[in-house]
Design a protein that fits this description.
Elements (H helix, E strand, L loop, with lengths): L1 H19 L1 H23 L7 E7 L13 H9 L2 E3 L5 E3 L1 E6 L2 H9 L5 E5 L3 H6 L7 E4 L4 H32 L8 H10 L17 H35 L1 H5 L6 H15 L1
Parallel strand pairs: 1-4, 1-5
Antiparallel strand pairs: 2-3, 5-6
Helix pairs in contact: 1-10, 2-8, 6-7, 8-10
């Protein structure tokens, strides 16, 4: 019974002294909260979707004819509506467009770091794409940042690949509507083969080991609890004998001598209660 009293006395004394020790309170309370906050913002926050600043130059006078089925301005209208959904369910615009009056002005803005890319519609683009002819666009991408350059190139290339596929699909549908009834169906298949010689399907598969924000925060919390146990155990174990000898614990708490195991268990109990 004497050993149990000693354990409780040592644990109670340590609890009271810890409350008065600001440094101990920092390491026990504030430090874990700071580490959890830093860990969350560093690793639990995925990178937000990229929004590209694209300068647009209309050198195509046929875009204003008014009698064409599809023009350069229709292309930029579609670009402005492209969005990507985040984990929180918010829609983020992929292309932020700004019109420039000349190619030189847009390239100066690109070199100055104001834009990620410049899109130029050459003369005759709207007429060619409406009449079924090859239509050409010119893209200028800002270099210097390998990650940003690759993302910009990938997004713009993907957009115009999708646009080209939709235009080709619509052209084939129009041609198929005007084919004679006796034309074999292989004719349409042949045209599809010319337009899309290779069809690649892309699917996104999330690894099972990939955790969301809640899962990552849970692992960070468990790791921080383990770190606190490690720090507290090392601190108590390294300083226990010296501190208790300086405080003259055996005489101040109880007149009979305190057994080594009672002192050890009391220090462990106080540490566990705080953690």
């Amino acid at each position: 019974m004497m050993g149990f009293r000693a354990i409780l006395a040592i644990a109670g004394r340590d609890m009271k002294s810890t409350v008065r020790d600001k440094m101990a309170l920092f390491w026990l309370i504030l430090f874990p909260l700071l580490m959890l906050t830093f860990s969350y913002f560093l690793w639990a926050n995925p990178m937000p979707p990229v929004t590209l600043d694209v300068g647009v130059v209309y050198e195509d006078s046929t875009a204003d004819w008014g009698n064409l089925t599809f023009t350069a301005r229709n292309v930029t209208e579609i670009m402005a509506k492209v969005v990507v959904e985040t984990e929180e369910g918010k829609n983020v615009t992929v292309f932020r467009l700004a019109e420039y009056s000349s190619r030189e002005e847009a390239l100066d803005a690109l070199k100055g770091g104001k834009l990620d890319a410049v899109l130029v519609f050459p003369e005759g683009f709207s007429k060619n794409i409406s009449y079924g002819l090859p239509a050409r666009v010119e893209l200028y991408i800002r270099g210097g940042d390998a990650y940003r350059e690759q993302v910009t190139r990938a997004l713009l290339t993907e957009f115009f690949d999708k646009l080209s596929d939709e235009v080709a699909k619509r052209r084939i549908e129009i041609i198929a509507e005007h084919l004679p009834p006796e034309a074999p169906p292989e004719v349409v298949d042949f045209m599809r083969g010319l337009a899309w010689p290779v069809n690649a399907s892309v699917s996104v598969v999330t690894p099972k080991a990939l955790l969301g924000k809640a899962g990552l925060m849970g692992w960070f919390t468990i790791a921080m609890i383990g770190t606190e146990f490690l720090i507290a155990g090392m601190s108590i174990g390294a300083t226990m004998l010296a501190e208790e000898r300086d405080r003259n614990t055996p005489r101040s708490l109880l007149s009979p001598p305190i057994a080594p195991w009672s002192l050890l268990m009391g220090k462990m109990l106080s540490g566990l209660l705080w953690l």
